[in-house]
Specification:
There is one protein chain. This protein is of the alpha+beta class. The chain folds into 3 domains: 2-121, 4-Layer Sandwich (Deoxyribonuclease I, Chain A); 126-184, no CATH class; 192-242. It is 42% helix and 20% strand. It is built from 7 helices and 9 strands; from the N terminus they run ββαβββββαβαααβαα. The chain has a 5-stranded mixed sheet with strand order 1-2-3-5-4, with helices on one face. A hairpin with a 6-residue loop joins β6 and β7 (108-114). α3 (135-146) packs across α5 (161-179) and α6 (197-212) packs antiparallel against α7 (215-242). The longest helix has 28 residues, at 215-242. The radius of gyration is 29 Å and the shape is elongated. The two termini are 33 Å apart. 9% of the residues are buried.
Length: 244
């Protein structure tokens, strides 16, 4: 099942829940292979999503089958045995506490308290600066270089090639600082790599339309947002493939 709760940390687009029941006489190896195949297929399709595996495992565990997953139920769930397990592909996600049985059931309930901390609270915010190039800025830089008397600029250092290079480089950087604007961007740890400034603008439009109660505008922005997200993900995929 694919779930999209009301609140979800930004690093998870949705939650995938796999429900498991393994009969008491089932073969351990076959059961593990079936679960592994299903989970591997889901993780290939959704590599960054939260995957939960829960159910009645009886005598089977996935500690060796899925070593990247963590198991969180550490209390007895039926008599003196722990056969109802919960695996997740995130570390330090839950803590378990036993509860009484529900009705005439023979399995105890388990209360799972979330302990996961979103990336934005754990990892620091990075800041990077870059120059915003445009045709106007390029033309202005050409004009700046075209009106420069390079003989006078480099004449006093003509006998030392290193001084000529340093002087020329500093002058080029000086012209770029004047002509080409520098933008500073704050990158949060939970931002998706394919999110662009245009998509952020559409997300802000969606929020304004929702708060204003304009359903027509909300549907229009949502439709445009889906198209932009699909295109941005495709562009990011091509960018990664070019690096292989």
């Amino acid at each position: 099942m694919s779930l999209r709760p009301y609140y979800l940390p930004r690093e998870f687009g949705h939650v995938i829940v796999v429900i498991v029941y393994i009969p008491p006489r089932a073969d351990v190896g076959i059961a593990g292979d079936i679960i592994h195949s299903a989970v591997a297929k889901l993780q290939t399709q959704h590599p960054e999503e939260l995957v939960l595996i829960s159910g009645d495992f009886n005598h089977v565990t996935l500690d060796k089958t899925l070593p990247a997953f963590s198991q969180y139920v550490d209390c007895n769930t039926r008599g003196n045995k722990t056969i109802d397990l919960l695996y997740a592909n995130v570390k330090d996600a839950y803590s378990a506490a036993p509860l009484p049985v529900l009705g005439k059931a023979d399995h105890n309930l388990v209360l799972l308290q979330p302990h996961y901390k979103p990336r934005v609270r754990v990892l620091p915010t990075t800041t990077r600066s870059f120059r915003k190039w445009s045709p106007e800025a390029e033309q202005a830089l050409r004009d700046c270089f075209g009106t420069t008397d390079w003989d006078i600029l480099q004449g006093s250092h003509s006998e030392n090639i290193e001084e000529v290079v340093d002087c020329t480089t500093e002058y080029i950087n000086f012209c770029m600082d004047i002509v080409v604007p520098v933008r500073t961007v704050h990158s949060y740890a939970n931002n998706k790599p394919w999110i662009t400034s245009d998509i952020k603008g559409l997300l802000n439009q969606k929020k304004r339309a929702f708060k204003g109660g304009d359903q027509h505008e909300l549907k229009r922005v949502q439709k445009e947002l889906r198209v932009q997200l699909r295109a941005a993900k495709e562009q990011y995929r091509r960018k990664l493939e070019q690096k292989l």
